[in-house]
Amino acid sequence: MNLAERVSTLRRVNSLSARQLAALVGVAPTTVTRIESGAVTPSFDLAQEILAVLGEPIGFTGLADVAAIAAARLAVDGDLEIEVTAGVEAWRRRWARIGLVDESGQVAVGKAADVMFRAGRVARLTRRPGAGDFAAGLGARELAGALGGAGVDYAVTGDAGANLYCSSAGEAWPVLYVDDVARAAEAAGLVRKSDPFGLRVTLIPFDGVCELGRSVIDGVMVAARDQVTIDAYGGVDRMAEQADVLVGRRAA
Length: 252
Fold this sequence. Notes:
- By secondary structure, this protein is of the alpha+beta class.
- Among the domains are: about 5-55, 434 Repressor (Amino-terminal Domain); about 130-245, Beta Polymerase, domain 2 (2-Layer Sandwich).
- Helix content is about 45%, strand content about 10%.
- It is built from 12 helices and 6 strands.
- The protein has helices at about 5-15, 20-25, 30-35, 45-55, 65-75, 85-95, 110-120, 140-150, 160-165, 180-190, 225-235, 240-245; strands at about 130-135, 155, 175-180, 200-205, 215, 220.
- The chain has a 4-stranded mixed β-sheet with strand order 1-4-3-2. Strands 5-6 form a two-stranded antiparallel sheet.
- The longest helix is centred in the middle third of the chain and has 12 residues, at about 85-95.
């Protein structure tokens, strides 16, 4: 897929109009349409900015920009003790251009779900720094029991976390935050996944943001509701639907 096709496809996947994408990256709408038509080849810096806000950063690693998560968590809960880094400020400026947050980075009225959706899309679970994929087998509750019994700090998120807050669908992909991925995998007897396809278990290291505001539900440590919502929007299959349930966009 060439750049023009890639931008056009990703824009639609992210539910953005050409005008909204243009506002996010600070260019005229005609620039986006000309890039998508192949009439204009953007500079490397502009291409990098466009792909970053679409969740497909340029580079060999292609890692998600987790500053978007920090910006979203602060937008909906300004009392959280999260450092306002240059990356957080960058996401605030982008989202302010399309009316999701105000000048101080606080969520605009009625836009909380949109902010969390944007953060989830640009920081998808499959691209989180330090994350490890393991062969499927144990469910999230079983993993939580194994990790808790071994003294490993953890927090369930994704679809399993969404179900603990508001039961809406079956668990398809156990995703947990942990304080040490290697130690957690050993404690739970997980085996590294050798291919990128099919069912899996994903462990993601704590990053100073995702572990804030956890709750214990039915004996399981769960990431904060806002974090679970962001992560469900950043997942696959029915996770986005479960995120919609959590923010009231869809009935349980």
